[in-house]
Specification:
alpha+beta; about 80 residues; elongated; four-stranded antiparallel beta sheet; 1 helix; about 20% helix
Length: about 80
């Protein structure tokens, strides 16, 4: 019984450490640890979400642009603003 309980608690702890995928919600803008490799938590009008990290627009999709993240020196691929 004790081994089973220990295994269950360890499994639950590992699930809690999973990183969010691109497009998933996250807590703190600028936090790369909250997201999968190559992504960073980004503030948006719909709340904070994981987006692909970038250094220029070439890394982003056709409907995205590489912009800064509030409270961070990092950039991410964000939807282009409608002009």
């Amino acid at each position: 019984m004790r081994i089973w309980l220990t295994a269950l608690l360890l499994s639950l702890a590992l699930v809690g450490c999973a990183s969010a995928e691109i497009g998933d919600e996250c807590d703190t803008p600028g936090d790369a640890d909250a997201c999968v490799d190559g992504a960073i938590c980004t503030n948006s009008s719909d709340g904070n979400v994981c987006r692909k990290s970038c250094t220029n627009d070439d890394a982003c999709g056709a409907d995205e642009e590489c912009n800064g993240i509030s409270g961070s020196t990092t950039k991410s691929c964000q939807p282009k603003k409608v002009k």
